[in-house]
Amino acid sequence: xxxxxxxxxxAKALYKFALEKGEDKKVYQLMTTLAQTFAxxxxxxxxxxxxxxxxxxxxxLLITAAGAENGDEIFTAFIKLLEENRxxxxxxxxxxxxxALYRKENNIHRVTVTSAAPLDPAEEERLRKLITAHLNxxxxxxxxxxxxxxxxxxxxxxxxxxxxxxxxxELKQLRLNLISH
Length: 181
Description:
alpha+beta, 4-stranded mixed sheet, 4 strands
């Protein structure tokens, strides 16, 4: 069966169950943390996929990686379900799919603003207002980053959409125009 289909089905089932219990937001926070931990720690996926690591250790590792606490019973039970169904190695994809599904259902957009230098608070607030107006009533998860390679200006990523207002991009476009003539 398709490796992408199975994680999506688990994510959808978890979302529906968590929504029924009123815990969808809390599970979203845990799944987002888990997905970020996987992204920041590539060895986590290796440990989860390792057949020589016990399933109990894998379960404990994932619960810890998500930052789950004693009251997070839905998340903990879900990880144990993955263990029982021998799907624990799909935890990363399920976490990513759950987060994407939650954002879609709640009209939340991931926004990343990357600038050549840190933006001053007034500029950043003005940019946030412009982005919020662009989202047509949706909300945003806002992230900012600094990349000196942009030389000046900024880029804005909204989900899969990108606006590039950087000096580096303008220089690239100018170079392409000069080469084409």
